[in-house]
Amino acid sequence: MQIDVVTDEASGYLATVEQLEAARTSRTKALLFVSPSNPTGAVYPPEQVAAIGQWAADNDLWVVTDEIYEHLTYGGATAPSIVTRVPELADRSIVLNGVAKTYAMTGWRVGWMIGPKDVIKAATNLQSHATSNVANVAQAAALAAVSGDLSAVVQMRTAFDRRRQIMVRMLNEIPGVVCPEPHGAFYAYPNVKGLLNRDLGGHRATSTAELARLLLKEAEIAVVPGEAFGTPGYFRFSYALSDEDLVEGLGRLAKLAG
Question: Is the peptide bond before 87 cis (omega within 30 degrees of 0)?
Answer without folding.
Answer: no
